[in-house]
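Lay summary

Proteins are chains of building blocks that fold into shapes. Our project writes down both the chain and a compact code for its shape. Here are two examples, one after the other.
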Amino acid sequence: MKHSAPSIPKPPAPDRAPTEAELREDLAAAYRLIALFGMTDLVFTHLSARIPGEGHRFLINPYGLLFEEIAASSLVEVDAHGEPRQETSWPVNPAGFVIHSAVHTARPDAVCVMHTHTLAGMTVAAQTGGLLPLNQISMEFTTRSLCTNTRVSPQTTT
């Protein structure tokens, strides 16, 4: 018996906008992955996706469902004022709406916004010095500049 290798899906063209159904499926999967990896932080983590087309509309989780319970069909479409644009028996978390509405308004290019409270992130945020530029990964997130005129300047310690 001959087995063929599974085909690898090709990524969509960069200028192709996802459909609402695709966004719902992807966002529901993201909520479930957040739950799987223990990053839910109860009701304080929020994910949203902008719906393409006219108006300021995005998808967000209904308040009251656990992240592992989120399905594409349970996501709530809200407008710029946090009002549901579909029939729903679930409320929308006001904190999630306010944060995500501000980001989606300020960044029209942001299709998906994820606001998490990971243990590592909260630990770094609680340190007096915050994220220190100690390795190449942390250097991606630091605002300190170690380069002057394209030459690397050594950092001095006291």
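And here is the second example, written the same way.
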Amino acid sequence: MDVMGLWNGFMEYDLTERFLYALAVGFTVWFAVAFILRRKGRLDKKNWFHEWGEAGFSAVWLALIIRALLVEAYSIPSESMVPTLLISDHLLVSKTTFGWPNPFGDGRLLKFRDVKRGEIVIFVPPHQPKLSFVKRCVGLPGDTIEVRDKQVFINGALTEVPTSFGRLKAIAPGSLAPLESARERYLDQRQAEIDPLKGTPAYQQAAFRTTWLGPFQLPDGIYYLEAAAAFVRPYGRLADFNTAGSFEVEPKDELEATAPHQPNWMQDHHLGNRDWFGPYKLAPDEYWMMGDNRDNSLDSRYFGPVKFKALRGTPLVRYWPLDRLGLVR
């Protein structure tokens, strides 16, 4: 591989990984130079150059070993797991949950347990072998997966997890007033914040920057609001499908338009669209992953089932931001 190929491969990793690998290379070179100089008698072992190089070398490589085998930091890059996980949530991920990938085959080294239905999993998607995704495991090996009218059915039975949400086109009348009141309060506050930016390039960006308001626990169901100065969109819990209001649902026989670079496994296999999918039976080594934000999630509907060897671990704790510190479920 040429130098440019190596550089392009290096740049495919996220910023934290690139920083850690660069430190590892830098301190390795530093330690090697210090070691050679000491062997030649040109450098005393107590010299700061040797001590710092040795300490940095040990610390960085210990961090790499811990990251590779035990615990890894992960930052949420998208809204696919909203409201459970928000953009820029930072997680510590256990890499020991399912054992470690076998570098010489398809099995696992020291497999501790199998995947549980409904748990959040970090894995490598089939179409992006250098990235890690985080989704919820909805289907296990041997399950028959089907989506009818936006709701997930497993082996013919409605099995919708309580953490999944979908966009509403109409809110149940009994919940309309409190959600409308929350929307107006947010817009009044947000508009006052961005008004000074009018006429500047930053105004458009500020107007479309989103946050999530909620949960609103109302008699008709649990709701969230995807809120920006330019729009506010209501989301309802899919477990409240029959009471929360009218959900946005793709027509049953309509093919969903996707970006040119985005995979569309379900369309390639003639299995329907995001809201009317399947049935599809998972093979003995296949798992079905879906985001909690069903209308904005690149998941198994688009890239297909995930193999056990692609699983990397489960989140232990959300450590940032501090106001959302806690366990992730």
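What can we say about the second shape? Residues 15-39 form the longest helix (25 residues).
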